[in-house]
Design brief:
single chain; mainly alpha; three-stranded antiparallel beta sheet; two-stranded antiparallel sheet; 9 helices; 6% strand; binds iron/sulfur cluster
């Protein structure tokens, strides 16, 4: 994986933290309700996660391999495939694999993420305005849902020659094994899905994110012009 893509991904994570810093979330260290075995990531994010100091411990990799050997959710579509279908007015392909119970093997015994600084966007995006245990699910500002979806699309575009899959698979496969049939081929960015009433806010947030410095350029240099 090229070093520039990892730099761009780190920039996107930092920009995401900046634009969401003004929100008040109920999420606290040790609350790990959303840390399940159903997390979906791109191969680029898995590559970045493998740079976490905790991942260098072979015992942690062995735990992830054990979890990956159990039946687990495997997504049928990437985010950009779903977006392309929606933009074309078509139904996305069905996603028949069921979500499974079980905690993410990257959690420690205190309920803390062992790779927190390198966690994927799906984990960064899962932020609730009230404790999830109260209603059984996260409560999120609809605008944040729109923004997080768009950033998933941007990450897939950065990794458009890569794959999308369950975090367990993406961490335990590499090289030719990464291109197996059970992983979804990534696609370029087809455009964003933004409700008309959120457009102004969305473009303001994206302007901040795409201006984020990456090397000698900015994050927006990695994307096609969409407007
Ligand atoms: S990677 Fe970290 S934040 Fe994400 S689900 Fe696993 S333990 Fe939770």
């Amino acid at each position: 994986m090229c070093r520039e893509q990892c730099l761009a991904l780190a920039g996107l994570y930092a920009a995401h933290a900046r634009v969401t810093a003004g929100y008040r979330f109920a999420c606290r260290a040790g609350c790990a309700t959303c840390c399940s075995v159903n997390v979906v990531v791109t191969s680029l994010e898995a590559e970045y996660l493998r740079q976490a100091p905790a991942w260098q411990d072979p015992a942690l990799a062995a735990e992830v391999h054990r979890a990956a050997a159990q039946p687990h959710y495997t997504p049928a579509c990437s985010t950009n495939l779903v977006a392309a279908c929606c933009l074309a007015g078509r139904e996305p392909p069905p996603d028949p694999s069921p979500h499974r119970p079980g905690a993410c093997p990257l959690l420690d015994e205190r309920g803390l993420c062992r790779v927190y600084d390198h966690r994927p966007l799906a984990c960064r995006a899962m932020a609730s305005t009230r404790p999830c245990a109260e209603g059984g699910e996260a409560v999120m500002d609809p605008f944040l849902f729109t923004l997080n979806l768009a950033l998933c699309q941007v990450i897939e575009h950065l990794d458009r020659d890569g794959r999308t899959g369950n975090l367990l698979d993406m961490l335990t496969r590499s090289g030719p094994d990464l291109h197996s049939a059970s992983l979804v081929r990534n696609r370029p960015l087809p455009g964003f899905l933004v409700p008309p009433e959120e457009e102004q806010r969305f473009h303001a947030a994206m302007d901040t994110i795409l201006a984020w410095p990456v090397g000698r350029g900015r994050l927006g240099d990695f994307l096609p012009r969409l407007r």
